[in-house]
Amino acid sequence: MPPGPIANPGRAALAAVMRPDGSPYLYFVSKNDGTHQFSATLAEHEAAVVKYQRGGKPLSKGNP
Fold it and tell me: Of 12, 30, 46, 48, whose CB neighbour count within 10 A is largest?
């Protein structure tokens, strides 16, 4: 367990929120190999989810 409350942001996390690095990426998904795919748009993110998490099976409306 962490030394403080779970989900209690530290000073570095708060500073990062106040001064983001300017990256265009808003989304990420695990590739299940220890790396991640970063995406700038929701459409790119959803395509990455299909590719890396759903094994090519498309997302269906209403069912994740």
Answer: 48
